[in-house]
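Students often ask why we bother predicting the structure of a whole assembly rather than each chain alone. The short answer is interfaces. A chain on its own may look different once its partners are present, and contacts between molecules only exist in the joint model. In this exercise we take two input lines together and write out one structure for the complete complex. Read the inputs first and try to guess which parts will touch.
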Amino acid sequence: MIAAVVKAKATYAFAERQFLLTKRYWAWEAVYLLYSLSMTLSIGFLGAGMQQLTGQQIDSGKIIVYLLTGSLLWGYLSALFWDVSNIISWERWEGTIEYTFMAPVARWTHIVGVCSFSIVYGMLRTAVLLALVTVFFHLDMSRANLPVAFAVLLTASFSFVGLGTVVAVLPLLSPEKGAQMTGIVEGVLLLVSGVYYDISVLPGWMQWISKLSPATYTLKGMRGALLEGKSLSNSLDTLIPLAVMGVVLIPLGLAVFGQGERYCKRTGRLKRSG
Amino acid sequence: MSEPAVEVHNLAKSFRKSSGAARSGGAGARPAARGLFRRKPRAAPVKVLDVPSLDVRPGEIFGVLGPNGSGKSTLIRIISTLLLPDEGQVRVFGRDVVREPLAVQRMLNRVSADAAFFRKLSAMENLIHTARLYGLAQREGAARAREILSRLDLSREKMDAEMHELSRGMQQKVALARAFLTSPILMLLDEPTTGLDLKSKREVQTFILEIRRDHGATVLLTTHDMVEAEALCDRIAVIDEGRIRACGSAAELKIAAREKVAAPSGAEPTLEAAFLALTGRTMEDAEQEKENPA
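Now the answer. The structure tokens for the assembled complex follow.
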């Protein structure tokens, strides 16, 4: 019982630290939100211009929501992966990494603390972006089932945290280039998952890979909820694979990170700054 | 007899370091293809620490005296579970640093020369974060942090200022407070006074003595400052090129030095002279050699 309380305190400490840092760097957060908004709007305009581009009568509202789902997920995933990879890179930059790694805290507690804040903050940011683009494009969201869309995103977050933890080992191994590599992983993941298109347009081998990506199920589930208003029970075909992937990917992420940490402690790379 | 605070047996650590010869393609380097895709030669491992045996007694201030690059920080990092040894065993109050890292981490804390903090957070926010990581409640952590910082003469205004607004000396005091906040029974102080002005240096040294006097904590202090080592430490290990050359009280080291080399005009040898006698070079020479290897 006491051990659980101590762990809960430590988890909260990491979440609180992330909150305080976000608050202190609020101006940069505002800039990032503006950047995400401009990216999302430009994708939205792509949908809005589809009618002129093809010369055919198209339900542009539906296309905009379809594309925006991809854009919102990309933004969410970027922020989540960024925070997870920052478990290492930010602490190296501040020089605090050794103090955090010598605290009597299991890595699991550390990662859960950082990620819990990222998930809550990322979902809030996604909600704000969705509200802004809905107003901007006068989208009709009366059929959309927003709670289910966010339930899909929340369930998917566990798989993304698992993948993010695997990716977080990159800045641990390469202080110079590791953080940028996380962006590449994220791009490839979304490429095979149908970020702005249906996966049926992908070559056969890519379609096969897409089945292993949690982003595929996330996009399918969110689009189903936003475009068709699918209920929770009708979204189980995406929620169940996402939950299973979370159960597999989180322990995998921790195992890979643990190996990376051990390698760094053996070779003295923990302290090195990029 | 009580259990040693730190027990080291046959400890060895090597790192692969790229040598000047390898970089310049000098003697010993493998012939490499010219141009953009030249393969970097794999550096040979260099032994940076080789300690057959070392014991630190509970409650003592134990100094590790040596020049930069002599292996002091490597030893501290191994004890604090941040580095894995290649060979040998290190125990902290009977707990193995490799097999039981969490148990060891609960007993110790560390202050290094570079006081690293989240710079945009205040001293109090940084300390409360540390307190929570070590299982203290927010209120308890905050109260203790304020008490320790007050003892270290930090005003309330400075406690709530962002870390980057504090002077180097003040930051080092906050670093000491962070380590002491968690009530460690072993304090690892890795050159805690390096780069501080004389006043801050004295305040930090006074605090170290207080920690031992009032709380009975064992202190392992690394330094290359002879005066500091002599003033603070009960026993001193002289370390050079990763090896412990001698271990004892300052007086014992001086006697050992006198037996090796007669002091000029029969004067009492200094710790500096003892270092010279025990290692065959002065601290300055050792540091210069490290910076400019032949």
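Check your guess against this: DSSP finds twelve helices and ten strands in chain B.
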